[in-house]
């Protein structure tokens, strides 16, 4: 199985587009009542889009992990040989951390928004009926997009580390083979 770059582009852009569409989220709901405040929120797809974005981030991370650890062409490369490359090691951990942070922020904002919609009766007069912070959604979008792009970089670095371990020849030639000809 060969993981293609298109998966990372697809899921990264999908995550980002879903969060851009959530930017039209209202800042607050409409409070109704005097002694008991009932919050009426306008219909918006924030919770559904947040959930789909989280699933897209999980798919992107799963494909990223698969691209690093799956043996290509039936040839397995040991993990110590892959992570001998310091750059791959660093990008792998940064991609993992960005995935966890982006997913956590995404879940936090989505669950908070869902709880605001479900728990809409408050025994506090003059309750403001807030919604989830739009900045949290935007931050989660950028971190999730970064995570998807970092998994793409990990795929490229894994390809280089496998080629080095298997001592495969570069199809573009060696570095010293560049010839310059001049016409007189």
Automatic annotation (TrEMBL):
Residues that span the membrane, as ranges: 7-27, 47-70, 90-111, 136-157
UniProtKB keywords: Membrane, Signal, Transmembrane, Transmembrane helix
Signal peptide interval: none
Protein name: MARVEL domain-containing protein
Compartment(s) of residence: Endomembrane system
Pfam families from the UniProt entry: DUF1218
Keyword Protein transport belongs to the record: no
PANTHER family: OS07G0462200 PROTEIN-RELATED
Membrane topology of the entry: Multi-pass membrane protein
Family: Belongs to the DESIGUAL family.
One cellular component (GO) term of this entry: endomembrane system
Taxonomic source organism: Aquilegia coerulea
């Amino acid at each position: 199985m060969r993981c293609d770059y298109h998966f990372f582009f697809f899921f990264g852009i999908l995550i980002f587009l879903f969060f851009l569409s959530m930017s039209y989220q209202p800042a607050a709901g409409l409070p109704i009542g005097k002694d008991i405040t009932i919050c009426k929120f306008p219909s918006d797809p924030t919770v559904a889009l947040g959930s789909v974005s989280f699933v897209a981030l999980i798919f992107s991370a799963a494909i990223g992990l698969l691209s690093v650890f799956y043996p290509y062409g039936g040839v397995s490369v040991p993990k110590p040989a892959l992570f001998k490359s310091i750059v791959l090691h660093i990008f792998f951990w940064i991609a993992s951390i960005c995935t966890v942070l982006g997913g956590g922020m995404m879940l936090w904002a989505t669950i908070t928004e869902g709880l605001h919609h479900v728990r809409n009766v408050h025994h506090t007069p003059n309750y403001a009926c807030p919604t989830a912070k739009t900045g949290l959604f935007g931050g989660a979008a950028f971190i999730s997009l970064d995570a998807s792009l970092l998994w793409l970089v990990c795929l490229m670095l894994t390809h280089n580390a496998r080629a080095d371990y298997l001592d495969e020849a570069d199809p573009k030639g060696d570095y010293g083979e560049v010839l310059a000809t001049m016409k007189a």
